[in-house]
């Protein structure tokens, strides 16, 4: 990462250093210079990311003479909300998506992945010569690669990928007006840079969104880590794990509420908080039975690693992306069914109501009713094993440490799991992006089967000392400690 406008710093990670750039509202006056001639930014789409990014950029660039416009497809139901937020056909800040694309110097493509795959040729055809193509996800690159195509020559292609949900991108930006450090960190990539200004433009976009810290990646690494992570530790594996653990505890004799608390509540509450505050190794130390944690970790690590590797291969070769596009075609005429119908989710409201009461039990894996905040050793061992399996697979595939710990750990424990704690896992899965929903529905049951059929039946086996030592000595702990210093200063969960 390089910049002629912003100061680039180095973050020490295992094996070397990585580049970061600090954001801040004091840098907003530098945005026009960093955008290098961009006079009009067109944001296509008004989903959670489109809405947040259009509003943040408009506010950050107020008074600079740079216009932010929103482009929507004909008949879009989002037009009314865009108008309510101050975008208007009358002043040229709201219009047809192709007309907005044709008039813009930076075109940020934030429509749904499958829709972008189906309509990218129309958008490319109307671009101004030399206009910059902006992405917040590398799905389109994966699709173009799979069909033997590419981005149009002569156009810069950059990406800014916020590490949180669109609602959080907007809410924390607004908090940033009064709370130092509020905002969502982002990774950036420069895929094509024909005029040499790609890094500056990407940094200006990221800082304009309110990112406290910006990390560098590549567009290929971004979409692979992002899509794999959604299907693994961020969503799919979590859903599979809580379903498996709920059934496990019920079979073992626990009542439904206790089974829910020892599975879902343990992961979204004390396990997530322990990792966020003190790191992964601290989870093992927090367990009342560390030998049981080690046995659970040893039983789950290899089957989880096998699944993460399989997902990665299918993302990298385009199979997973094609499944999303095919599913979108099927779903054009019928809604996607929800996953929150299994028996465990009927107890969510009761469990949430018990929080903070004398009846509320948060488990160490010790005696029922101890009322002490902690983590269940079996649930913790399986969860941490899956998280480390993803970390190790990403490291083996050559991803940067900043990307590994953000996509595998920080986004999980600081954003998604707290959101699930406030709502529940099923709610999160049923209300995320189409790409993530489809991936979770496909891979969550695979993880559930692996836990139920491979990991849990092997809990009586001795822990694998090599796996436990590899966990304790993993360089990811140092990388996580370095990246954790750069996290936002406020809660980003809900």
From TrEMBL:
Matching SUPFAM superfamilies: 6-phosphogluconate dehydrogenase C-terminal domain-like (SSF48179), NAD(P)-binding Rossmann-fold domains (SSF51735)
GO molecular function: ketol-acid reductoisomerase activity; metal ion binding
Binding site for Mg(2+) 1: 226, 230
Protein's recorded name: Acetohydroxy-acid isomeroreductase
PROSITE patterns xref list: KARI_C (PS51851), KARI_N (PS51850)
Annotated KARI N-terminal Rossmann domain residues: 21-217
Keyword 4Fe-4S: no
Chain ranges passing through the membrane: none
Lineage: Bacteria, Bacillati, Actinomycetota, Actinomycetes, Propionibacteriales
GO biological process, one term: isoleucine biosynthetic process
Positions of the KARI C-terminal knotted domain: 218-358
Family: Belongs to the ketol-acid reductoisomerase family.
Alphabetized UniProt keyword annotations: Amino-acid biosynthesis, Branched-chain amino acid biosynthesis, Magnesium, Metal-binding, Oxidoreductase
Record-linked InterPro entries: 6-PGluconate_DH-like_C_sf, 6PGD_dom2, KARI, KARI_C, KARI_N, NAD(P)-bd_dom_sf
Pfam families according to UniProt: KARI_C, KARI_N
Pathway, per record: Amino-acid biosynthesis; L-isoleucine biosynthesis; L-isoleucine from 2-oxobutanoate: step 2/4; Amino-acid biosynthesis; L-valine biosynthesis; L-valine from pyruvate: step 2/4
Cofactor(s) the protein requires to work: Mg(2+)
Provenance organism: Kribbella rubisoli
Residues that coordinate or bind Mg(2+) 2: 226
Recorded superkingdom: Bacteria
């Amino acid at each position: 990462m390089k910049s002629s406008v912003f100061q680039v710093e180095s973050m020490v990670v295992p094996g070397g250093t990585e580049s970061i750039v600090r954001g801040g509202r004091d840098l907003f006056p530098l945005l026009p210079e960093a955008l290098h001639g961009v006079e009009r930014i067109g944001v296509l789409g008004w989903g959670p990311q489109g809405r947040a990014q259009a509003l943040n950029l408009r506010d950050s660039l107020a008074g600079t003479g740079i216009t932010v416009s929103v482009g929507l497809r004909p008949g879009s139901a989002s037009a009314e909300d865009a108008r309510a937020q101050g975008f208007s056909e009358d002043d040229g800040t709201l219009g047809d998506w192709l007309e907005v694309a044709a008039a813009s110097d930076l075109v940020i493509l934030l429509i749904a992945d499958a829709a972008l795959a189906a309509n990218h040729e129309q958008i490319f055809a109307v671009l101004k010569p030399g206009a910059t193509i902006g992405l917040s996800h590398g799905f389109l690159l994966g699709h173009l690669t799979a069909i033997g195509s590419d981005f149009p020559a002569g156009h810069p292609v950059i990406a800014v990928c916020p590490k949180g949900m669109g609602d959080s991108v907007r809410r924390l930006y607004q908090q940033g007006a009064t709370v130092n450090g509020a905002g969502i960190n982002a990774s950036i990539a420069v895929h094509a840079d024909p005029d040499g200004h790609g890094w500056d433009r990407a940094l200006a976009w990221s800082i304009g969104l309110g990112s406290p810290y910006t990390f560098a990646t590549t567009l290929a690494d971004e979409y692979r880590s992002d899509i794999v992570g959604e299907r693994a530790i961020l969503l799919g594996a979590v859903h599979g794990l809580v379903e498996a653990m709920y059934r496990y505890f019920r079979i073992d004799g626990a009542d439904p509420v206790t089974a829910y608390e020892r599975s879902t509540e343990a992961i979204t509450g004390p396990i997530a908080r322990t990792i966020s505050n003190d790191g992964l190794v601290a989870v093992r130390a927090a367990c009342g039975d560390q030998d049981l944690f080690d046995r659970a970790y040893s039983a789950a690590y290899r089957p989880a690693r096998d699944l993460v590797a399989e997902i990665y291969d299918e993302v990298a070769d385009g199979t997973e992306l094609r499944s999303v596009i095919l599913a979108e075609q099927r779903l054009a005429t019928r809604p996607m069914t929800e996953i929150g119908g299994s028996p465990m989710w009927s107890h969510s409201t009761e469990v949430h109501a018990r929080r903070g009461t004398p009846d509320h039990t948060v488990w160490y894996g010790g005696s029922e009713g101890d009322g002490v905040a902690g983590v269940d050793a079996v649930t913790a061992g399986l969860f941490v094993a899956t998280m480390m399996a993803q970390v190790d697979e990403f490291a083996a595939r050559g991803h940067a440490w900043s990307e590994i710990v953000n996509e595998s750990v920080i986004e999980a424990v600081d954003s998604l799991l707290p959101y699930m704690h406030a709502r529940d896992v099923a709610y999160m899965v049923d209300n995320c992006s189409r790409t993530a929903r489809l991936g979770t529905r496909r891979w969550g049951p695979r993880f559930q089967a692996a836990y139920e059929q491979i990991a849990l039946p092997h809990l009586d086996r001795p822990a694998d000392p090599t796996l436990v030592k590899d966990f304790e000595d993993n360089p990811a702990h140092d990388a996580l400690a370095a990246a954790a210093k750069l996290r936002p200063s406020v809660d980003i969960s809900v």
